[in-house]
């Protein structure tokens, strides 16, 4: 059985990553200049990949309980 503490840790990390993405989207809407927009877009892509990995791990812990 998965560790409940790990599931809580994953849930916290998922929430933090979603918040990071929201913040980056806000920054992107206020950014000017192609280089700044590209830098923020790269960071958003990194955060989205991180979110996908965290969600996949969370799904794996959920599947293990069945």
Q: How many domains, in number, for the residues?
A: 1
What gross morphology would you assign? Answer: elongated
Name the structural class.
mainly alpha
Query: Main β-sheet, in a few words?
Result: none
Distance between the termini: 9 Å
DSSP strand tally: 0
Question: Rounded to an integer, what's the Rg over CA atoms?
Answer: 15 Å
Uncertain stretches: none
Number of helices: 2
Instruction: Assess the beta-strand content as a share of residues.
Output: under 5%
- Summed over residues and divided by their number, the pLDDT gives a mean of 89
Instruction: Give the proportion of residues in helices.
Output: over 70%
What is the string of helix and strand elements? HH
Describe it.
- The protein has helices spanning about 5-30, 35-65.
- With about 70 residues, it is an all-alpha fold.
- It is about 90% helix and about 0% strand.
- The longest helix is centred in the C-terminal third of the chain and has 31 residues, at about 35-65.
- The protein has one domain (about 5-20, about 35-65).
